[in-house]
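hi! just following up on the protien thing from before. the input was this:
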Amino acid sequence: MPASYAYLGPEGTFTEVALRTLPEAATRELIPYVSVQSALDAVRAGEAEAAFVPIENSVEGGITTTLDELVAGAPLMIYREVLLSITFALLVRPGTKLSDIKTVSAHPAAQPQVRNWLKKHLPDAHWESAASNADAARLVQEGQYDAAFAGEFAAARYGLQALETGIHDAENAQTRFVLVGRPARPAAPTGADKTSVVLWQRDDHPGGLRDLLGEFATRGINLMLLQSRPTGAGIGNYCFCIDAEGHISDRRVAEALMGLKRICLQVRYLGSYPRADLQPVDVEPPRLGTSDDEFVAAADWVARCQDGRF
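and the predicted 3d structure came back as:
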């Protein structure tokens, strides 16, 4: 496999900045791709060792482009995640004033994070979506748009100037990025892990989602992301993208996945990996019987009953 990482480009994206925080990025060739899909396809085709893409932000939740690409196609697996604080700058060609701006551009995920600022300062500006924030800056450089919302660090790369900085509607906004590779054995548990899966129901019935979530709840597993995505099979047909606390090697998580495998039409395992915030998994109090020791003891009791040793 080539010693390279694909990422959502071009150069100057928040994705590139987040990727460079990974120590191993210094030993890989970092190759920008024009879209999340093309970056992930490079991994599937064996053209890159892994791809680094955004998957969630604290303003709008899951980034649907990435989720949909992980739901469909040949299976891929998440190995790492990075959290990056996000603030935008309004990048323009030198000499442009705020009153000159009639068109603005950025990645669609940026719009909800600057919507109020835009309404207050540029209420008549027309929004045009771009493949990435850095690509929006490139289009401004080429004269296609008047301004772009991007990282301030992208200004020098594209010969622009930051007319405004520190733009954000929500304080402490963050975006979560993931390093995605081909399926392999998950890394060893750290005690501060999460597990990602996609679930498809066998049929649509009252309490169907409750049944799925119950497999986690009865084992004291907290969910960190729950987002439905259309399957493409018609209105009302959805699968569910879920991030749960814990690692597949934890007995409670493994048993939840086994339970889901029994009742779901399909389960796609997307990996168990360290949490970026390094927060240890907070297991429910022992009275609920959710510790690994209690799962082991219960399994041992069943085995003894089967052997007539109870």
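The longest strand covers residues 264-274.
The chain has nine helices and 15 strands.
cheers
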